[in-house]
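Record type: ASSEMBLY
Status: queued
Input:
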Amino acid sequence: MNADDFYRAGEILAVAALVLTTRAAGFYQKNTELPEFWVRFFRYAPFGAFVALVVPGLSGPQGIGIAQLGGALAAALSVKLTRQAWVGLAVGMVCFWLLRALLPQESL
Amino acid sequence: MSETSKYRPAFLAGFRAIMPLWLGGVPFALVYVVAARKAGFSPVEIQLMSLLIFNSAVQVSMVGLVAAGASLWAILFPALTLTIQNVLYGLSLSQKLRFSPFGRLVAACLLTDGAFAVTVAAGEVVSVAYLLGAEISMYFIWNAGTFLGLVLNQVIVDPVKLGLNFVIPLMFVVLLVPLLKTRFELKLLVAAVICAYLSNLFLPAGVTVLLTGLVSATLGAFFAPSPSKKQAQNIRMNRDNDR
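Status: finished
Output:
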């Protein structure tokens, strides 16, 4: 193992420790009722994180990518209609591939 | 009846209850493996992350951020925003169920959104064995899916050329859609998209995730509509029944 491998292992352990802390925090706080403000705060934090992980992935070389946007919208619609995550992933990828194949390169 | 056989039916019921989510777990595991291989993670590291972290959103975001050259802090803050809701789940379950010290430890280590949801949905019949069944079921499929992805990855030649890197944002679209239930959440989506877009122009990826998470959480905390009078009454009645 070289220094990079040790650093990578450290990163994995640090993230694992953080995730375990959030999982265990609630279990070891018996009879604590959070104020409504904090309940909402915790509920909406992942919402924003998900959005922030989507937005950069929708860019193409010329700004917003048409194929990426089309794929994302198709996936969202499929999940809304079927409530099946794997259907959304499959439809989104097929739509993305089709648009990428059909549209001229400069418009992507 | 021995101790083990007493808890077995509830454990198996929980194990089976979450099996419909396996359909989503396997594709996500494959997505994660493709993204991690592209980011330069070794097969051992990829499987180790599934064994130790066991959170699809955190693992996929982590490999994306590592690929973008993010620092450790820029990886940890997004991981925090993606898992902070676990505190709520743990609080809710610890008030509902009677745990042994060992049961509490295992339940805390393997808690997921899905396991919490099926346990709460099971209503009055729920027990610690049921929760552990659901959690272990998901842990099994997530790690089996990761292993399957590593095996299949030998066949896939160039993920980027095939456009498979697009599965990462797509996965988060799929996770986001079920959260959009009310008009307020649609407005919050618009605000979060603007925040993420502007932040992404000037700031590193990890900071963008943290900032957008905090903006959404703060807007949600201040402006999300309160439960209606009827909903609040139902919550109070359920709480009284539990006692």
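Annotation: The longest helix of chain B spans residues 128-153.
Annotation: Residues 238-243 of chain B have pLDDT under 50 and may be disordered.
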